[in-house]
Specification:
alpha+beta; Immunoglobulin-like; 2 domains; 5-stranded antiparallel beta sheet; 4-stranded antiparallel beta sheet; 11 strands; 31% helix
Length: 147
């Protein structure tokens, strides 16, 4: 006896269920990957929005004490800032300052707190200058001052 019409329908039904399951699995995997990617991107954007600081010196009176110029940074963001030579870079008049030539008074500052950056005097000559401090998430502040 041959294969009946009902048998053919059963085979087609089983094949369509298998294909639908495979397509569903692929769609679930793709949706999960998109969701994870959007979540990670959102976290990075939130971190960048919460990271902010301001240089709060008097531009005409930069303290020069014991061989170091002092610059003050205030955390005006929404989270604690790690203040180390690996998380911050300093530029004076567009030239990067070597990490050995500056340091911070504290390793981190809470929201609203101020820390001091000590820059070796030999790195800044007298005259008008521009200081750019680049922090985490490439957030930066610029400050024009006179020595």
């Amino acid at each position: 006896m041959g294969f009946s019409l009902t048998g053919t329908h059963v085979v087609y039904f089983i094949a369509s269920v298998i294909i639908a399951s495979a397509v569903s699995g692929v769609l679930v995997a793709v949706t999960n990957n998109v969701n994870t990617s959007l979540s990670e991107t959102g976290d990075r954007v939130q971190t960048q929005l919460d990271t902010d600081f301001k240089i709060v010196n008097d531009p005409n009176n930069i303290p020069n004490i014991t061989g170091y110029y002092r610059f003050y940074i205030k955390n005006i963001g929404g989270r604690k800032l790690e203040t180390t030579n690996t998380t911050f870079n300093l530029f004076v008049d567009g030239e990067i300052i070597s990490t050995a030539k500056y340091n911070f008074s504290e390793e981190s500052i809470q929201v609203g707190d101020i820390t001091t950056i000590y820059v070796v005097n030999s790195e800044i000559s007298s005259g008008d200058h521009d200081l750019r401090v680049v922090g985490p998430q490439a957030v930066y502040d610029e400050f024009e001052f006179k020595i």
